[in-house]
């Protein structure tokens, strides 16, 4: 293993991939990264930090007075009234220390057993907050998966949860990380407590908290710039990114942030989802709350990107991810990996990593979702409801087109300033699934799907007159001008990939005439919104929705032929970058017959491994060390373990050890001595880890 053979402290469920620390160049790149993050405005001022602490202090006093008031009203003794208490905890980005200017504060109020959520929290405390000066935009959400009250206090956004624990008096030093806090509480309370318990556990399980924080701050900013930061839309939210970064910190305990960012992309471009990411073993408990376990729970088998919380009861924090959003994220991981490689070779700077994703150049066809209300307050409520259901539209389109029409929901909202009523819009990119042959003239009629979606949206229990929803199909040239606040700008040709070559490739595959990117992107800011007013007014009439691939007449209004739902030649790019295929790292070929330093094998086309897997001619150089053969060996070992039903009783360390032994056996099989100097290379360790579909449960 890279980094030495002594037994290091193990922070996760497997040993580290590398114990190497930074060299001077890594320290320099880290300093440049931290400077970039500061200049990007990701750190709040001391004045704002002080204001947050002041707000939390006032909120803490409000909830304490609320509990004492209820205790007195219910006839408890004077001593009980005096001892009555509520404790305020924080979680999320604020607790993890990675919040930025203007970020909300996730808070949890823990109260005694006789103060309930339904009436005392959502009615009594709600009324108190309504009458509190400087509390605005108060929005109770009692039916949410995690019931919450949202509001602003002195201009700072607060998400307040409540948990009633089985105690008559809540001690000021209550430790909610202890399992005893979960005794005799309902599942909604468990979910409310879990945010704080998870945040505390993450900080306990990383080797260096400061390096973790800097890396997480960087990756969250990157995800927002690349359009993949949004749990509600089906991407990843704050806790998901925190868990992924924490796992990389465990695998590279001595690495500094610049190294950790690079390793993050290296690991997760290879990760074999739905293999789970876990910071610790999943624990079962006599309390009997359901935990994530795909061996027992059929629903858990359907999760596409399991990222498991480290506190009991362990859950999948990323159950919102769909096949479409996972595909988009994997494309972006490839982009990040390519740029980080160039940064390490001094061919690019950190700014290249954070180039915004050019969403409106990436596709030829889009769905536009217009949300309209009478005033800003109604729009805030209506938009929150619609946005929480947008993920369902993605899933329905995937379902009704049998996965042939892929959706890319973009987690940014846009507003048309020319409209008199309150308005915002969301967009989804549409493309045919790559690599699937489509019959000529085949079209997708998704009008029924969108009608079904709109029907579900209109079931909103707090609907008011003026709340309207319109969903329409728009081509790229019809994108309204207001999504380009600074005017339309043609993306610069990327120097990272051969853009034209990728464009020509996709043109050929789609049967389209080759056209230059410039000729396809050529349009002016004004022309982008020429028909926008008419388009928005007719949006409901043109609602597109159940989708079954079929051939329709031109009058049907389906998405076909003339408006093919597939990427045009230059549309295959990731914004101004190329499609993910262009990011795959291809090692320099070596001459047939060269000996691989890792395998001790001659990579000739007619050789086969001990497992009967053909070696690949010209597959890798000794410096890369991860050839196709090694990945196939890893897959073969896993399949043999699955076939022997050993996976159920094999923990992480044992499984990886078995895989490593098999790789060394391959070395002997081809005339090596079974010893790889310095242990298996880091790249191979990453490959083995990424291929290990184990589900360890600690009982």
From TrEMBL:
<dbReference type="InterPro" id="IPR043519">
    <property type="entry name" value="NT_sf"/>
</dbReference>
<protein>
    <recommendedName>
        <fullName>polynucleotide adenylyltransferase</fullName>
        <ecNumber>2.7.7.19</ecNumber>
    </recommendedName>
</protein>
<dbReference type="GO" id="GO:0031123">
    <property type="term" value="P:RNA 3'-end processing"/>
</dbReference>
<dbReference type="GO" id="GO:1990817">
    <property type="term" value="F:poly(A) RNA polymerase activity"/>
</dbReference>
<feature type="domain" description="Poly(A) polymerase RNA-binding">
    <location>
        <begin position="358"/>
        <end position="418"/>
    </location>
</feature>
<dbReference type="Pfam" id="PF04926">
    <property type="entry name" value="PAP_RNA-bind"/>
</dbReference>
<keyword id="KW-0067">ATP-binding</keyword>
<dbReference type="InterPro" id="IPR011068">
    <property type="entry name" value="NuclTrfase_I-like_C"/>
</dbReference>
<dbReference type="GO" id="GO:0005634">
    <property type="term" value="C:nucleus"/>
</dbReference>
<dbReference type="Pfam" id="PF20750">
    <property type="entry name" value="PAP_NTPase"/>
</dbReference>
<keyword id="KW-0479">Metal-binding</keyword>
<keyword id="KW-0539">Nucleus</keyword>
<keyword id="KW-0547">Nucleotide-binding</keyword>
<dbReference type="InterPro" id="IPR007012">
    <property type="entry name" value="PolA_pol_cen_dom"/>
</dbReference>
<feature type="domain" description="Poly(A) polymerase central">
    <location>
        <begin position="211"/>
        <end position="355"/>
    </location>
</feature>
<dbReference type="GO" id="GO:0046872">
    <property type="term" value="F:metal ion binding"/>
</dbReference>
<keyword id="KW-0507">mRNA processing</keyword>
<feature type="compositionally biased region" description="Polar residues">
    <location>
        <begin position="570"/>
        <end position="584"/>
    </location>
</feature>
<feature type="domain" description="Poly(A) polymerase RNA-binding">
    <location>
        <begin position="422"/>
        <end position="492"/>
    </location>
</feature>
<dbReference type="InterPro" id="IPR048840">
    <property type="entry name" value="PolA_pol_NTPase"/>
</dbReference>
<feature type="compositionally biased region" description="Basic and acidic residues">
    <location>
        <begin position="526"/>
        <end position="537"/>
    </location>
</feature>
<feature type="compositionally biased region" description="Polar residues">
    <location>
        <begin position="541"/>
        <end position="558"/>
    </location>
</feature>
<keyword id="KW-0460">Magnesium</keyword>
<dbReference type="InterPro" id="IPR007010">
    <property type="entry name" value="PolA_pol_RNA-bd_dom"/>
</dbReference>
<comment type="similarity">
    <text>Belongs to the poly(A) polymerase family.</text>
</comment>
<feature type="domain" description="Poly(A) polymerase nucleotidyltransferase">
    <location>
        <begin position="12"/>
        <end position="206"/>
    </location>
</feature>
<dbReference type="GO" id="GO:0003723">
    <property type="term" value="F:RNA binding"/>
</dbReference>
<feature type="region of interest" description="Disordered">
    <location>
        <begin position="486"/>
        <end position="593"/>
    </location>
</feature>
<dbReference type="GO" id="GO:0006397">
    <property type="term" value="P:mRNA processing"/>
</dbReference>
<keyword id="KW-0808">Transferase</keyword>
<dbReference type="Pfam" id="PF04928">
    <property type="entry name" value="PAP_central"/>
</dbReference>
<dbReference type="GO" id="GO:0005524">
    <property type="term" value="F:ATP binding"/>
</dbReference>
């Amino acid at each position: 293993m890279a980094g030495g053979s002594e037994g290091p402290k193990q922070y996760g469920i497997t040993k580290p991939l590398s114990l190497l620390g930074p060299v001077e160049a890594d320290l320099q790149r880290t300093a440049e990264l931290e400077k970039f993050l500061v200049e990007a405005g990701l750190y709040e001022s001391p004045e704002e930090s002080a204001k947050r602490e002041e707000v939390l202090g006032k909120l803490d006093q409000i909830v304490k007075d609320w509990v004492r008031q209820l205790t007195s009203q219910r006839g408890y003794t004077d001593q009980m009234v005096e001892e009555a208490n509520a404790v305020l905890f924080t979680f999320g980005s604020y607790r993890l220390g990675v919040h930025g200017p203007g970020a909300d504060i996730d808070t949890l109020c823990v109260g005694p057993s006789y103060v309930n959520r339904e009436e005392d929290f959502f009615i009594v405390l709600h009324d108190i907050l309504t009458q509190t000066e400087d509390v605005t935009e108060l929005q109770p959400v009692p039916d949410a998966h995690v019931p919450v009250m949202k509001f602003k206090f002195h201009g700072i956004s607060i998400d307040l949860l409540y948990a009633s624990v089985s105690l008559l008096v809540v001690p000021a030093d209550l430790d909610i990380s202890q399992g005893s806090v979960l005794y005799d509480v309902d599942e909604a309370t468990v979910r409310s407590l879990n945010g704080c318990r998870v945040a505390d556990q993450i900080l306990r399980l990383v080797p260096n908290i400061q390096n973790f924080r800097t890396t997480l701050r960087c990756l969250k900013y990157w995800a927002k710039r690349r359009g993949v930061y949004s749990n509600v839309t089906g991407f990843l939210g704050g806790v998901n990114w925190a868990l992924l970064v924490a796992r990389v910190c465990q695998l590279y305990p001595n690495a500094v942030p610049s190294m950790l960012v690079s390793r993050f992309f290296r690991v997760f471009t290879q990760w074999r989802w739905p293999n789970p990411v876990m910071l610790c073993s999943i624990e079962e408990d006599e309390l009997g709350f359901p935990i994530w376990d795909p061996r027992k729970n059929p629903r858990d088998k359907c999760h596409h990107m399991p990222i498991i919380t480290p506190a009991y009861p362990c859950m999948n924090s990323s159950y919102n991810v769909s096949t479409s959003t996972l595909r988009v994220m994997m494309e972006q991981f490839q982009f990040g990996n390519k740029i980080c490689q160039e940064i390490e070779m001094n061919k690019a700077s950190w700014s290249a990593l954070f180039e915004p994703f050019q969403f409106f150049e990436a596709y030829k066809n889009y769905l536009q979702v217009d949300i309209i209300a009478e005033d800003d307050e109604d729009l805030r409520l209506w938009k929150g409801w619609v946005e929480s259901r947008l993920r369902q539209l993605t899933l329905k389109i995937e379902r009704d087109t049998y996965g042939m029409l892929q959706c890319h929901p973009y987690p940014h909202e846009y507003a048309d300033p020319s409209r008199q009523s309150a308005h915002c819009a969301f967009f989804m990119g549409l493309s045919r699934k790559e690599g699937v042959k489509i019959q000529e003239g085949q079209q997708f009629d998704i009008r029924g799907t969108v009608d079904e979606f709109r029907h579900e949206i209109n079931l909103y229990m707090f609907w008011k007159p003026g709340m309207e929803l319109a969903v329409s199909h728009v081509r790229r040239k019809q994108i309204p001008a207001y999504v380009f606040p600074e005017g339309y700008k043609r993306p610069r040709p990327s120097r990272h990939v051969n853009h034209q070559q990728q464009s020509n490739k996709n043109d050929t595959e789609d049967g389209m005439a080759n056209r230059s990117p410039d000729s396809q992107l050529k349009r002016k800011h004004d022309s982008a919104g020429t028909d926008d007013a008419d388009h928005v007014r007719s949006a409901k009439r043109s609602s597109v929705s159940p989708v079954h691939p079929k051939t329709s007449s031109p009058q049907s209004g389906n998405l076909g032929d003339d408006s093919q739902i597939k990427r045009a030649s230059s549309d295959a790019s990731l914004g101004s970058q190329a499609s993910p295929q262009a990011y795959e790292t291809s090692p320099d070929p070596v001459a047939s017959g060269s000996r691989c330093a890792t395998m001790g094998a001659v990579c000739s086309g007619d050789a086969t491994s001990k497992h009967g897997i053909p070696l690949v001619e010209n597959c890798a150089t000794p410096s890369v060390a991860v050839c196709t053969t090694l990945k196939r060996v890893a897959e073969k070992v896993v399949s043999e373990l699955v076939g022997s039903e050993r996976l159920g009783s094999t923990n992480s360390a044992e499984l990886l050890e078995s895989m490593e032994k098999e790789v060394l056996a391959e070395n002997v099989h081809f005339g090596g001595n079974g010893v790889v100097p310095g242990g298996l290379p880091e790249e191979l360790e990453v490959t083995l880890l990424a291929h290990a579909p184990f589900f360890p449960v600690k009982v």
